[in-house]
Specification:
Layout (H helix, E strand, L loop, with lengths): L3 H6 L12 E2 L1 E7 L4 H11 L7 E8 L2 E8 L2 H4 L2 H5 L5 E7 L14 E5 L2 E11 L2 H10 L9 H11 L5 H9 L4 E8 L4 E5 L8 E5 L4 E4 L2 H6 L2 E6 L4 E6 L2 E6 L8 E2 L1 H6 L5 E2 L2 E2 H15 L6 E4 L5 H11 L7 E3 L17 H6 E3 L1 H4 L3 E6 L6 H12 L4 E6 L12 E2 L7 H4 L2 H8 L3 E4 L2 H8 L6 E2 L1 H4 L10 E5 L20 E5 L10
Parallel strand pairs: 15-25, 18-21, 21-22, 22-24
Antiparallel strand pairs: 1-23, 2-5, 2-11, 3-4, 3-5, 6-7, 7-8, 8-9, 9-13, 10-11, 10-12, 13-14, 16-17, 19-20, 26-27
Bound molecules: iron/sulfur cluster (SF4).
The site of iron/sulfur cluster has 11 residues, from α18.
């Protein structure tokens, strides 16, 4: 039963106010710039939306690797003196949406390891679906692990590979990996960028005017450090940069790519170009489709900020109705901790979103959001708008109903916690208390993607997974494990850790 109110009644804090899927990571790689660590730091700022719980940078200077990682925002982990400790003209960086608990810091990337012929650092965005099998195999053969991250498996496989030169070790390793990985590696003399054959997670390449190469999860990072976008790292491609220039290799036979459609719906910044398509344009068109498919008489269109704004603009323009800021988001509450004794219903959502009475009073309001996960936040938003005087509240969702969890590097709750997996649209409408509710139809979403449509993963909307974990049982992580700000986690799971579920529940293996 999806019932936030029940949680409150049992004495648990209201943790679902940020009821969204979460991107796990963002990665950056710089080669050939004397300011590599500072550029990396700035690029990580641009990618902060992809992970707020940990950040790290590794630089290489005269064959010496220097690493600084920490828990928190990029601005909390780094300062001038720390960046001064990271000399060198190549660097990789990582922002992470991480787990709670004492193991948190050691899971913050990039990771660095030494092997027979040198050292290698890696930063990874994604999730390996065969992580358990690989780790079990390595442990049976004597490997010792320091973290619970699937990325450490990659380093072990590189160290154990007998291939030479180094680049063949990476290829040898990647051929054993299944699932989602966009990774950057740094060695004494090389920067390597790799994207899995499905291309689930994005990775782009750019260049600065001084010739330095830049890799990043999104183009917004390139823009910030004045690197010109050159192209995507193609699915299944390995790009090697060293003083001799650039080399590209094909990792393995190309399968049909399966880029994550959620990057366009929610994860990526609207100013990014992801999978060759403007995120802003996508979201605006999602809103326009909603206005065409699910029109309603209304006086004003508002957004659930920030992620619903562009779709709301599209809806308003298509419907010919004014767009107003009916909800104001506070950007300063991210790490507030609510004491368990403060059992105040809707406290969390009110901290983050404030209604504007002057916009809402007596109005028929269309409110556009990017997605509904458990439905608890939506119900609070509807109540907030009605309490602020809205006469009618019509919820429009700029994505199809989510019915399945993700295996590929996105933190989603168990499938049975997804409200659209349990209830039909009318039942959800009743649950959230809106006067009407409509989702973006999946077929219209696919049509919009046109010829590229087959190259996208829609698994969380249709349950058709491009690649499944090989074992009968998979390890999933409860959404409630993520508790750093006190708003997002269930208290009972602070020390909850891992749970085992049968594979047929189609849960997510959450390692990274
Ligand atoms: S299952 Fe959903 S969130 Fe995961 S990669 Fe596919 S589209 Fe993206």
């Amino acid at each position: 039963m999806i019932a936030m109110e029940d949680d409150d009644d049992q004495g648990y804090i209201d943790h679902d106010n940020d009821d969204k899927p979460r991107e796990e990571c963002g990665v950056v790689g710089i080669f050939g710039d004397p300011e590599a660590s500072r550029l990396c730091y700035l690029a990580l700022h641009a990618l902060q939306h992809r992970g707020q719980e940990g950040a790290g940078i590794v630089t290489v200077n005269e064959n010496i690797f220097k690493t600084i990682t920490g828990v928190g925002l990029v601005s909390e982990v780094f300062n001038e003196s720390k960046l001064n400790q990271l000399p060198g003209d190549s660097a990789i960086g990582h922002v992470r949406y991480s787990t709670a608990g004492s193991s948190m810091l050691k899971n913050v990337q990039p990771f660095v390891a030494g092997y027979r012929f040198g050292s290698v650092g890696v930063a990874h965005n994604g999730n390996l679906v065969n992580y358990r099998a690989l780790r079990n195999n390595l442990e049976e053969n004597g490997s010792i692990f320091n973290t619970s991250s699937d990325t450490e498996v990659v380093l072990h496989l590189i160290a154990k590979s007998k291939a030479r030169p180094f680049i063949l070790r990476i290829i040898d390793t990647c051929e054993k990996l299944e699932g989602a990985y966009s990774m950057v590696f740094v060695t004494e003399d090389k920067l390597v960028a790799v994207r899995d054959p499905y291309g689930f997670r994005p990775l782009v390449m750019g260049r600065r005017s001084n010739g330095a190469y830049v890799f990043a999860s999104e183009t917004c990072a390139l823009d910030l450090i004045e690197a010109t976008y050159e192209r995507e790292v193609n699915p299944g491609e390995v790009i090697v940069i060293d003083k001799g220039g650039i080399q590209t290799l094909c990792l393995m036979p190309h399968k049909e790519p399966k880029a994550c459609i959620f990057e366009h719906i929610y994860f990526s910044q609207p100013n990014s170009v992801v999978f060759g398509r403007s995120v802003y344009k996508s979201r605006r068109e999602f809103g326009e489709i909603l206005a065409t498919e699910a029109p309603v008489d209304c006086d004003v269109v508002i957004a659930v900020p920030d992620s619903g704004v562009v779709a709301a603009l599209g809806y308003a323009a298509k419907a010919g109705v004014p767009f107003e800021q009916g909800l104001i988001r506070s950007h300063y509450v991210g790490r507030t901790f609510i004491e368990p004794s403060q059992r105040i219903r809707d406290f969390g959502v009110k901290l983050k979103l404030a209604p504007v009475k002057g916009v809402l009073e007596g109005k028929r309001v269309v409110v556009v959001d990017d997605s509904i996960v458990r439905g608890t936040t939506s119900s609070k938003i509807v109540r907030l708008l009605k309490e602020a005087g809205a006469k009618e509240v019509h919820m429009r969702i700029a994505s199809p109903p989510m019915i399945a969890s993700c295996y590929y590097g996105v933190d989603t709750p168990n499938s049975d916690e997804l409200i659209s997996n349990r209830l039909n649209v009318e039942e959800i409408r009743k649950f959230i208390g809106s006067d009407s509710l409509a989702f973006l139809p999946l077929e219209r979403l696919k049509n919009l993607m046109g010829d590229d449509s087959k190259g996208y993963c829609y698994a969380c909307f249709n349950g058709k997974y491009p690649v499944l974990p090989p074992n009968k049982e998979v390890t999933v992580k409860k959404m409630g494990d993520f508790v750093e700000d006190g708003l997002n986690g269930s208290l009972k799971s602070i020390n909850g850790g891992w749970v085992q579920v049968p594979r047929d529940q189609l849960e997510t293996e959450k390692i990274n």
